[in-house]
Amino acid sequence: PLLDSSKALSAPLKAALTDIFNTFDKDKDGGLSPTELSDFVFKTNGSRPPQAFLKQMGLQFGKDAKGYLTLDGFFNFFLEQTLEDPVETRRDLEKHGWD
Fold first, then answer.
1. 34-72 b/e with 16+ CB inside 10 Å = b?
2. Confidence of residue 31 (pLDDT cuts 50, 70, 90)
3. Where would I find the H helices in 1-99?
């Protein structure tokens, strides 16, 4: 399951998302820079997002001191997406080798 009984991300989903996050966090600084986040979005959706979108992701979901999307921010994004559209989350996971 994607969510647990309290509507939080399930442990297996968090493990998959952590693996995906770490794959794109090339410099291992704990945040996805605009370039790293753009690479994630491109692999997931097949197109590059606008710079404003990349900045907004950190602002809306959780950022570090540099403004980069954190792992917790990544979790927050996927929680919101999963609550709204679990099929989209499953599709995203499949594109990164998770089922």
1. bebbbbbbeebeeeebeeeebeebbeebbbbeeebbbbe
2. very high
3. 11-24, 34-45, 51-61, 71-84, 86-95
Q: Is 66 left (phi over 0), alpha (psi -120 to 50) or beta?
A: alpha
45-59 residue pLDDT tens: 999 999 999 999 999
The predicted model scores a pTM of 0.96
Q: For the residues 59-87, what does the mean pLDDT come to?
A: 97
First-last CA distance in the chain: 11
- Cα–Cα distance for residue pair 31/64, rounded to 1 Å: 7
Taking CA atoms, 34 is separated from 25, 42, 80, in Å, by 11, 12, 21
Q: Which of 59, 72, 53 is nearest to 14 (CA)?
A: 72
